[in-house]
Amino acid sequence: MRFLFVIVAVGAFLGVAVFWNLAMVSALRFFRINLPFSLPFHFYRRREPELLVALEGRSINTYVFISGLLLFACPLFAGLTAYDYVIRRSVEHSTYGLNYIVGSVASFVLLGIGGAWISISDWQKSAESGIGFATLAILALKVSTDTMGALTVVEVLIPTALCCSLFYFGVRRIRRAAAGRRYPNRRDMGVKSDFIAEQFVPSEHYKAQQMAMSKKLIAAGLNPEQVASMFSVPIDLPSNEKPKDQ
After folding, report:
1. Is residue 208 located within the same domain as residue 149?
2. Of 43, 65, 82, 103, whose CB neighbour count within 10 A is largest?
3. Do the domain assignments include residue 29?
4. Are 13 and 133 within one domain?
């Protein structure tokens, strides 16, 4: 029976969060910020930055206020309140006290900080992400706490989730770093081989330079045979300076 109420609470969370965003879309359209009514149903990364397009020409403060607070922190907080209401009324049969109020305020502040951070990142990347991952994380924490107990969550589930997250982001970072390196392919290797194997053909200017240098070395007293062996191209020495055949 407890698990059934937990499912009802999850449905209340999702329903209230979607309804809040639908109400916000309607209110923003009244202020000539034309957002599609399908926006609340895009829980994960959107293909097109719909809010950025609707807020073209406005400041980043307006974007952070709408995206981070009205469309992120507020719907999640409203859904979390609806979830707690179902659980406290149907399962725990507890009343609302000072501890619950303080915890709710702290939750809203944390959601606001997270929403502002995500909105600033989306603004810089010109991309938009929905509330899917945050919803999944909150529901996983709440459902596991209400079904298995807070002690099990703290001792087992949270460390396991942290280890999996570190492993996932570590593998993702390694893959990005590996994708950034460019290794030579077969086509590049073929080009290099052809370049190395290409026969060197000296120009007339190069031959003239070699000839002038050989004359200077012979005038300095070097043996013409030694001079001829020092250059990579045949040198047409004067007839009286050509090396004798052995």
Report:
1. no
2. 82
3. yes
4. yes
